[in-house]
Design goal:
single chain; alpha+beta; Dna Ligase, domain 1; four-stranded parallel sheet; 16 strands; about 25% strand; ATP_grasp_subdomain_1; nucleotide-binding; ATP-binding; metal ion binding; ATP-grasp
Length: about 325
């Protein structure tokens, strides 16, 4: 009998729909899957080795998949790194998640790899930000260091707005993170990548009355996987080390140049794809990669490629197999 590799997703139930689709496919193709909340994972470290427990029983994962962010990021990072040190393959490792969710590390890695990104300034000093924005020109966009779905983003249009923004920062360690505004028709494209390969892309348009393309209530449409967009997104995912990534790309209307806003390391897609009447193919492709990586991590990293990509005009209906599964 062929061993069913156990893939443990470390995360909570905030993205339950995505986890359900992922686990359905893992089980369909011969793997075993389980989600463990960071609060429920117990780790024993002794001279003899490292063991993992949950619910009073020992857990023997063949691979850990990190899906932790915000409140559980630091705890989950410690657990994922402990697993890696114990010799367990980890997809989206502790450092990958940190680099994906920390805006300033994201920017540093993208610029270091020569990815078309944006100049950014982060810190707390008010006068430095005032002079930097005046020199580069308005408008500017400010984002929280760690956030999602457009929460906390603001547009700074003059020096007074800059000074108000700095004054409103919470006591240390909160800092500003500021970059130039890109005129892109209030839209961007999220490219979903598995093992640094583009699988699908969705164009996101800001809801009426705002310029934030990933805000709730905005428009969504399937995007063409243009070669230049794919290549840029794949290089960005690789720069951050994200084996599952959502790369946000925009095209500057003034110059036609592409810019990567950021690389997300816990990207959701089920709700969007179902809204479009499509199967969430990025998650089913992710399942195939995880099963392959659980069996032979190095081999999967070198040779696994997506079997399906999603493009406009291709209709992929939700599969009846993806119904009810206990996570």
């Amino acid at each position: 009998m062929v061993h069913a590799p156990l893939i443990v997703l470390l995360g909570n139930d905030d993205d339950d729909d995505d986890h359900r689709v992922l686990f359905d496919e893992i089980r369909r193709i011969g793997g075993a899957a389980r989600r463990v909340h960071p609060d429920e994972l117990v780790i024993e470290v002794t001279a003899e080795g490292t063991r993992f427990h949950t619910g009073g029983a020992e857990l023997r994962p063949d691979l850990l998949f990190g899906w932790v962010y915000e409140d559980y990021l630091v705890l989950g990072m410690n657990q994922l790194e402990t697993a890696r040190l114990a010799g367990i393959p980890v997809v989206n490792s502790a450092m990958t998640l940190w680099q994906g969710q920390s805006k300033y590390l994201n920017s540093a890695l993208l610029h270091r790899a020569g990815i078309a990104h944006l100049p950014v300034l982060w810190g707390r000093d008010e006068e430095t930000l005032v002079s930097w924005t005046a020199r580069r020109g308005y408008p500017m966009v400010t984002k929280p260091m760690m956030s999602s779905r457009g929460r906390g983003m603001a547009c700074l249009t003059d020096e007074a707005a800059v000074r108000r923004h700095v004054a409103a920062l919470d006591p240390a360690p909160e800092q500003y993170y500021v970059q130039p505004f890109v005129p892109a028709g209030h839209r961007d494209t999220r490219v979903l990548c598995v093992n640094h390969r583009a699988v699908a892309a969705v164009t996101r348009t800001a809801p009426p009355g705002t310029w934030i393309s990933n805000a709730p209530g905005g428009g969504r449409s399937l995007a063409e996987l243009d070669r230049d967009v794919c290549e840029l997104a794949e290089r960005a995912a690789e720069a951050v080390g994200a084996l599952f990534a959502g790369v946000d790309v925009a095209r500057d209307e003034r110059t036609g140049d592409l810019r990567v806003y950021e690389v997300n390391t816990c990207p959701t897609c089920t709700a969007t794809f179902r809204e479009l009447g499509l199967d969430p193919v990025p998650l089913t492709e992710l399942a195939a990669f995880l099963v392959a990586a659980a069996r032979d991590f190095d081999e999967a990293r070198r040779h696994w490629r997506p079997s399906v990509t999603v493009r406009p005009g291709l209709t992929v209906r939700p599969d009846s197999r993806s119904s009810s599964t206990t996570i």
